[in-house]
Amino acid sequence: MKVFLLFSGSGTMVVLTDRSQVDDQSFLAVLAGKGVEKFVAYEIPVPLARERYGHHFEKAEQELSADRPLRVLDYNGERAMRLFQFAELGAVVMHEPEGYTEQKSF
Length: 106
Description:
106 residues, alpha+beta, 5 strands
């Protein structure tokens, strides 16, 4: 089980997953289904997320399953940023699908 703080074009969120890596193909497919394809992610230590989110974390953890490998702990980017200091987070992972970026003139 892993917890990730994700920064994407649609906003900041904290997610709980049963996948072992943020770049796991099945995890990426679930994120893409939610409209999140390009992102920057930081791993949050599970004990720290459990402590900060309390009962909400426990409920999300119970709802993880093979057909629901991702649970959103927090859609509120401002709250997520207040709950965790950068020094508490793991290494950064950047994901950008091949051919995702478009070049346009404004």
